[in-house]
Amino acid sequence: MTEPGDITPGVDSGAEADETRLENGRLLFAKEATFLLGAAGLAQVPDSPLPEIAFAGRSNVGKSSLINALTGRKDLARTSNTPGRTQQINFFDLGKRLMLADLPGYGYAKAPKGEVMNWTKLVNSYLKGRQELRRTCVLIDARHGLKPTDREVMAMLDAAAQAYQIVLTKCDKVKDDELDKLVERIGQELTKHTAAHPVIMRTSSFKSRGIEELRAELAALALPAEAV
């Protein structure tokens, strides 16, 4: 007779747990994702009981493309080859279990300096003070690695005790051995950051690489299905 906690012979409990996590992620991100609003100022940021995931990164790093890939929608989040196209915080309700926030890119952007300063201030204030925020995905272009602006955001999140996770984008454009070296370098650097999640995600929105794994990671932060 198998007691609670026993491992059934021939069954890899670790593999089963991984499959369960992936399935939970698939089910959550198969839910309807609805654009809620775009906030151009803190006063417009919505009150919400939902746990929240923010997507931050340098301009043109692929935030909107990643959100579209995660939700299986081609046009949920607006994508553009023009850096700085997203100029407000766009909120998406995912099945009434999780809120996704697509943030304006930091760094270089094709926009007037005054506008860039305004939305940079908005993003910083939001990241430092949002109580509903469970994790910030800090997106890094795998071709370029960490830049000074990324490190500034990471230091700010450390100081605010806001948990964040590095998500590498455009990994299909980098050779596997180079990607391994990049992950190792960033991993070593993360040991000095108090709010950083230790697991670095590797993704490609174009090739759907790492999308299932990231869904599983974020689904663990959502409201339980039975709570909806």
Q: Strand portion, in percent?
A: 15-25%
Low-confidence stretches: 1-11, 79-85
List the domain count as a whole number: 1
Secondary structural class: alpha/beta
What is the helical fraction, as a range of percent? 25-40%
Précis, in short:
With about 230 residues, the chain is an alpha/beta fold. It has helices at about 15-30, 65-70, 115-130, 150-160, 175-190, 210-220, and strands spanning about 35-40, 50-55, 90-95, 100, 135-140, 165-170, 200.
Question: Which features does this protein show?
Answer:
about 230 residues; disordered N terminus; 7 strands; 7-stranded mixed sheet; alpha/beta; Rossmann fold
Model description:
- The N terminus is likely disordered.
- By secondary structure, the chain is α/β, with parallel strands linked by helices.
- Strands 1-3-4-2-5-6-7 form a 7-stranded mixed β-sheet, sandwiched between helices.
- The longest helix has 17 residues.
- The protein has 6 helices and 7 strands; from the N terminus they run H-E-E-H-E-E-H-E-H-E-H-E-H.
Show the helix and strand layout:
Blueprint (H helix, E strand, L loop, with lengths): L12 H17 L3 E7 L12 E6 L5 H9 L17 E6 L3 E5 L10 H17 L3 E9 L6 H13 L3 E6 L6 H15 L10 E2 L8 H9 L9
Parallel strand pairs: 2-4, 2-5, 5-6, 6-7
Antiparallel strand pairs: 1-3, 3-4
